[in-house]
Amino acid sequence: MIFVTVGMHTKGFDRLLKKMDELAGTVGEEVVMQIGHTSFRPTNAKWFDFTTEAGIKEWCKKARVVVTQPAMSILDAQEQGTPVIVVPRLKRYDEVIDDHQLDFARELEKEGKVTVVYDVDRLEEVLQKSDLKAQELVKDGRLVNALKKYIAQFEPD
Amino acid sequence: MKICLVCSHGGHLTELLCLKEAFEGHETFFVTYDSTRTRGLERRYLLQNIGTNPLVMAQAFLSMLRILLKEKPKLIVSTGSEIAIPAFYLAKILRIKTIFIESWTRLDRPTGTGKIVYPVSDVFLVQWERLLSKYGKKARYEGAIL
Asked: How many angstroms away from the CA of B145 is the closest CA of chain A?
């Protein structure tokens, strides 16, 4: 099963969902989508708009691969040990306010942390690869420690 | 110490949850947007999603004021997005300390919210060193969630 999730974003992500719905009708693998605020309604894929924290984790766990935007949903998939393919939302399609997702995707790709698909027409080919790997999450404790230090400074004596 | 955690209900919440270990030993509560996901949080106040609607922003200022006066937190921590704006400006007036953490997804481009709350934040952190050049001297890089 392929799980597609586009999060809570107030803008829709029609480009990704339309392509994945088209593939749902041809690839012979079940596709489930969390469509958020996207107005497009899939006809081949199973879909819902939002779910709970546990719901997202459960779908990510069941999936062979998760297709999402380069944002925090990557963590949901990686926590479940599921490979992730990201498609950046682009400003030119009014999918996002600026192209920060593109910057972020390029950086994560450079670090080998995710597979990035920039052109949705390449999704079918990338989804069929058998060597999609889940990346291990390595948390950086520095930020937590810095926060603890600042919080301690603000504590009343 | 009582800490108020402020964030919108998607990725910004995920980032704040990644940092929850930092708040261990403190009393915390969330102010976030209402959604299927956030209704599952334990101690929380749920506001309507502000987005870019000025009227909802005005309502959020009133709701946030009521919450802060009732809860009297000593510190507000936020990872964005625009829900941080009423929280941080009211905190300035109410003398509540603030820590803002810019999103991990922001390498070179500051968020609109980051730019607006920067002047009133007591601590302002970015998660990429190269983003420091887009903010003033107060901004710090102290690592990222991952």
From this structure: 6
